């Protein structure tokens, strides 16, 4: 135990020295690695150690090898090369295991969707000698599979590709449902609401991508403001097609007020945290 603590303290001191030698602040180092400056501070105080996936990029930013980083001092080139290869192999193996897990999950979901569709078609035809409600299930399962496929098969930008698939499939799905159910509102009001919902989802995605995890309270406040705007837009769409009671309108206003209060609280917390850092 004492030996592990000594090695951790040695690496912490080495990270601190190399960072200062490169004229980097904790915040600048954190931004290059995609972590918070608090995480860097913990490394340099030996409170915690960098995650294994960060060792190679951290070593590159500090201008040292992973062997030197782990040892907390300059090492021979042969040892450095061995450690580098071991880390790369470990990282590659972990990526392959995760990829296989995603493939197995996707295969299981696809098989369950297919089985569910076949069972519904058989049951529907066996009972009524026609295909009616089973077509709704078939269309819904197909749309769900089309949205989930990019999340499982995409190597990178899974969320982006999933949102893109949702954007492309939502309106055809609503049109088919409207035809099968003979409900005009699905093709009119439903599509307007769907468009507003998609704009909200893309807005949330953009906020999370641009703001990042370093300013989570600010990001949460922006998401809350966006939700209020989306809620207002959807309510105006519903009012254009349906007549609602005063109680329903009051409840919607109450929800908006609660979300605005939460947004203001998060924004205040964000500015307070920034003030404390100065």
Q: How would you sum up this structure in a few lines?
A:
The chain is mostly helical. The protein is built from 12 helices and no strands.
Give the amount of beta strand, in percent. under 5%
Shape: flat
Task: Determine the mean pLDDT.
Answer: 84
The low-confidence parts are: none
Cα Rg: 27 Å
The number of distinct helices, counting runs of at least 4 residues, comes to 12
- Could you give the count of β-strands? 0
How is the biggest beta sheet arranged? none
Compute the separation of the termini in Å: 37 Å
What is the H-and-E element order? HHHHHHHHHHHH
What helical percentage do the residues reach? over 70%
Class derived from helix and strand content: mainly alpha
How would you describe what is shown here?
The chain is mostly helical and 278 residues long. Helix content is 83%, strand content 0%. It is built from twelve helices and no strands. The protein is flat, with a radius of gyration of 27 Å. The two termini are 37 Å apart.
